[in-house]
Amino acid sequence: MSPKMQSNLLLAVEGLCIVFIFVTTGSLVAQNLTFLLIQIFGALLIAWSYLALKVNRIKHVPGFGNFWAMHGPYEIIRHPIYAGILLIMSGYVQWYMTVPRFLVFIVLIGVILVKMQSDEHVLEELFKDEYRTYMSKTHKIIPYFY
User: Which of 58, 94, 108, 138 has the most C-beta neighbours closer than 10 Å?
Assistant: First the structure.
């Protein structure tokens, strides 16, 4: 399977997981302040990441139509958009916890981990030592941990 096809398949599964969590929540915003703050932080992280991508297009990734940025949140973690998605979804799942929602969230985490690995493999092949140096200075998704 080509990297682009694999990426599209993972994106579809990711989308289905997110839709399931939204549909089974019953509200667009968590009713608990703690979970609401987690969701707001996730949304702000995603917004900051998109702004950094628009302003700091460093490297173009051929065939993917994406750009590799190294500024903004990308100075700290390599996948801040995925981190933001997981924060928002964890707020929903923790606010209204059920077994099916929890299992779908676990699938979402797995899909995002596989997608991150796939994305990094493509970038490592394209930019070799430059990307390896960047990887050595940042964490994947959780600052100072993972």
Answer: 108
